[in-house]
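yo, Transmembrane protein is done. seq:
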Amino acid sequence: MGLGLVLAIALTGCTTSSGSYASVGLAPIPGSITYHGQPRTKLTKSPVGSSFPHTFTDQWGRQVEEIYIIRPDRSLLIAERHYRPVFSLDDD
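structure:
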């Protein structure tokens, strides 16, 4: 019975947060769409909950890819950030 209770609580925690974008997301960095606040234009044709990527180069020359999610109020949430590795093909 104890194991069943633990599993029930774990599953409840998984299902109640699904589909919720209430978190603050990642903090914007220079180059992020939301670095100087939310964009003035709203994404009115994109469905709430949809996501899109944005790729830019940060101040250290690294390639950064951020994934944004459109919230119900049409603001953007930075859901993921990935730094792409920089490879040099020069052996000099």
